[in-house]
Amino acid sequence: MTILANATVLIAEAHPSVASGLHAMIGHWGGVGRIVRTSTELHASLHDTLPDMLPDILLVNIDMVGGREGLRALALRHPIRIVAMSAQPLPAGSVRWGSVMCLEMPFSIDDLQTALTSACGEGVPRLNAPALKGCRDQGRIAS
Q1: Cβ distance 41 to 10 under 8 Å?
Q2: 139 has a pLDDT exceeding 60
Q3: Going by DSSP bridges, is the β-strand pair 81-86/100-104 parallel, antiparallel, or unpaired?
Protein backbone atom coordinates (compact mmCIF):
# COMPACT_ATOMS: atom_id res chain seq x y z
CA MET A 1 0.00 0.00 0.00
CA THR A 2 1.52 3.35 -0.97
CA ILE A 3 -0.67 6.00 0.59
CA LEU A 4 2.40 7.97 1.69
CA ALA A 5 4.39 7.37 -1.53
CA ASN A 6 7.90 8.10 -0.18
CA ALA A 7 6.78 10.94 2.07
CA THR A 8 9.29 11.47 4.87
CA VAL A 9 7.91 11.26 8.40
CA LEU A 10 9.92 12.25 11.46
CA ILE A 11 8.59 10.20 14.38
CA ALA A 12 9.20 11.89 17.74
CA GLU A 13 8.27 9.33 20.39
CA ALA A 14 10.15 8.38 23.57
CA HIS A 15 8.72 4.87 23.95
CA PRO A 16 10.71 2.45 21.75
CA SER A 17 7.85 0.00 21.16
CA VAL A 18 5.44 2.78 20.13
CA ALA A 19 8.07 4.39 17.89
CA SER A 20 8.87 1.02 16.26
CA GLY A 21 5.20 0.30 15.59
CA LEU A 22 4.66 3.74 14.04
CA HIS A 23 7.80 3.33 11.93
CA ALA A 24 6.60 -0.06 10.68
CA MET A 25 3.17 1.29 9.70
CA ILE A 26 4.66 4.29 7.90
CA GLY A 27 6.96 1.95 5.97
CA HIS A 28 4.04 -0.34 5.16
CA TRP A 29 2.19 2.65 3.71
CA GLY A 30 5.13 3.60 1.49
CA GLY A 31 6.58 6.37 3.66
CA VAL A 32 10.11 6.81 4.89
CA GLY A 33 10.24 7.12 8.67
CA ARG A 34 12.98 8.33 10.97
CA ILE A 35 12.76 8.12 14.76
CA VAL A 36 13.96 10.58 17.41
CA ARG A 37 13.40 9.67 21.05
CA THR A 38 14.13 12.88 22.97
CA SER A 39 13.18 16.53 22.79
CA THR A 40 16.85 17.38 22.30
CA GLU A 41 17.11 15.01 19.31
CA LEU A 42 13.90 16.44 17.85
CA HIS A 43 15.02 20.06 18.08
CA ALA A 44 18.51 19.24 16.77
CA SER A 45 16.98 17.30 13.89
CA LEU A 46 14.76 20.22 12.88
CA HIS A 47 17.26 23.04 13.54
CA ASP A 48 20.23 21.35 11.87
CA THR A 49 18.34 20.48 8.70
CA LEU A 50 18.27 22.64 5.60
CA PRO A 51 14.72 23.86 4.90
CA ASP A 52 14.41 21.80 1.71
CA MET A 53 15.51 18.67 3.61
CA LEU A 54 12.88 18.87 6.38
CA PRO A 55 10.56 15.88 6.60
CA ASP A 56 7.15 16.14 4.96
CA ILE A 57 5.36 15.35 8.23
CA LEU A 58 6.30 15.46 11.91
CA LEU A 59 4.48 12.80 13.97
CA VAL A 60 5.15 13.92 17.54
CA ASN A 61 4.16 12.97 21.06
CA ILE A 62 2.91 16.28 22.45
CA ASP A 63 4.71 15.68 25.76
CA MET A 64 8.02 15.82 23.89
CA VAL A 65 7.46 19.47 22.93
CA GLY A 66 6.00 20.72 26.20
CA GLY A 67 2.30 20.46 25.47
CA ARG A 68 0.04 22.62 23.37
CA GLU A 69 2.12 25.82 23.71
CA GLY A 70 5.30 24.02 22.69
CA LEU A 71 3.46 22.51 19.76
CA ARG A 72 2.26 25.96 18.69
CA ALA A 73 5.82 27.36 18.89
CA LEU A 74 7.15 24.42 16.87
CA ALA A 75 4.50 24.94 14.18
CA LEU A 76 5.39 28.63 13.92
CA ARG A 77 9.14 27.97 13.69
CA HIS A 78 9.18 25.20 11.12
CA PRO A 79 7.44 24.92 7.73
CA ILE A 80 6.28 21.37 8.35
CA ARG A 81 2.97 19.54 8.65
CA ILE A 82 2.44 18.22 12.18
CA VAL A 83 0.38 15.35 13.54
CA ALA A 84 0.44 15.41 17.34
CA MET A 85 -0.24 12.43 19.60
CA SER A 86 -1.52 12.99 23.12
CA ALA A 87 -1.78 10.49 25.99
CA GLN A 88 -3.95 13.02 27.83
CA PRO A 89 -7.62 13.33 26.93
CA LEU A 90 -8.20 16.03 24.34
CA PRO A 91 -11.01 18.54 24.82
CA ALA A 92 -14.11 17.75 22.77
CA GLY A 93 -13.69 18.92 19.20
CA SER A 94 -9.88 19.12 19.45
CA VAL A 95 -9.07 17.10 16.37
CA ARG A 96 -7.16 20.16 15.16
CA TRP A 97 -5.25 22.98 16.79
CA GLY A 98 -4.70 25.45 13.98
CA SER A 99 -2.74 23.61 11.31
CA VAL A 100 -1.88 20.71 13.66
CA MET A 101 -3.86 17.45 13.47
CA CYS A 102 -4.26 15.79 16.90
CA LEU A 103 -4.69 12.13 17.84
CA GLU A 104 -5.65 10.95 21.32
CA MET A 105 -3.80 7.81 22.41
CA PRO A 106 -4.63 5.05 22.12
CA PHE A 107 -5.75 5.57 18.55
CA SER A 108 -6.61 3.11 15.82
CA ILE A 109 -4.50 2.35 12.77
CA ASP A 110 -7.34 3.83 10.72
CA ASP A 111 -7.14 7.09 12.69
CA LEU A 112 -3.36 7.23 12.15
CA GLN A 113 -3.77 6.55 8.46
CA THR A 114 -6.44 9.25 8.16
CA ALA A 115 -4.32 11.82 10.01
CA LEU A 116 -1.18 11.14 7.95
CA THR A 117 -3.11 11.06 4.68
CA SER A 118 -4.82 14.32 5.62
CA ALA A 119 -1.50 15.94 6.51
CA CYS A 120 -0.05 14.67 3.25
CA GLY A 121 -2.86 16.21 1.22
CA GLU A 122 -3.06 19.59 2.94
CA GLY A 123 -2.17 22.76 1.17
CA VAL A 124 0.87 24.72 2.25
CA PRO A 125 0.08 26.10 5.73
CA ARG A 126 2.48 29.07 5.48
CA LEU A 127 4.03 30.93 2.58
CA ASN A 128 7.54 29.65 3.34
CA ALA A 129 6.51 25.99 3.54
CA PRO A 130 8.04 23.81 0.82
CA ALA A 131 5.96 21.64 -1.46
CA LEU A 132 5.63 18.08 -0.25
CA LYS A 133 8.35 15.88 -1.68
CA GLY A 134 6.75 12.51 -1.29
CA CYS A 135 3.00 12.74 -0.86
CA ARG A 136 1.29 11.56 -3.99
CA ASP A 137 -2.23 12.21 -5.27
CA GLN A 138 -2.80 15.01 -2.72
CA GLY A 139 -3.51 12.55 0.09
CA ARG A 140 -5.90 10.26 -1.74
CA ILE A 141 -5.28 6.61 -1.03
CA ALA A 142 -3.36 4.93 -3.83
CA SER A 143 -2.47 1.26 -3.81
Answers
A1: no
A2: no
A3: parallel
